[in-house]
Amino acid sequence: MDTLDYAQEIVKELQGSVSGLNAAEGEAMAELLLRSGQIFVAGAGRSGLMGRAFAMRLMQAGQAAFVVGETVTPGIGPGDVLVLGSGSGETKGLVSMAEKAKAIGAAVVLVTISPDSSLGRLADYIVKLPGSPKDQADGSYATIQPMASLFEQTLLVFYDAVILRMMEQTGQTTGRMFGKHANLE
């Protein structure tokens, strides 16, 4: 196979993964984010990078959104939401964040492959994504891609779908969002 063949196979896998999304879970997440105070987004590794992209779009859509760990990120409080992207649902640092957020009175949303995980037991809202966790060895979800690539790609597509739904519900347009695009580049 050449790079084009691989790219086409990745798109096929992503199409299969996206077709397994639960619309009601996505709707519940979009509604929660629209009625929340501040939105905090976190994830580890590549899942964290997808979360950063999501936080950027939330900000551009007019939401008070922050990436956990940045020096300008304020404290979380009651009425706020912590959105966690974690394939395994077992990342220790994210578990700690979820425990702290809940103790303060914030809602916790988990987007994961593993709803029956430590984070799943802490979350107020769970969105289950199909995919292959990086430590999976039993072949239960076939992918040619390494580690959790399919989960991370599905995570980004799902996050973008939530943004589009929020835009629709608030009358937001791409043109209005562009006004919040970085201009010191």
Automatic annotation (TrEMBL):
SUPFAM superfamilies in UniProt: SIS domain (SSF53697)
Coiled coil (residue ranges): none
UniProt-listed CDD domains: SIS_PHI
Pfam families from the UniProt entry: SIS
Family that this chain belongs to: Belongs to the SIS family. PHI subfamily.
PANTHER family registered for this protein in UniProt: 3-HEXULOSE-6-PHOSPHATE ISOMERASE
Protein name: 6-phospho-3-hexuloisomerase
Gene encoding the protein: hxlB
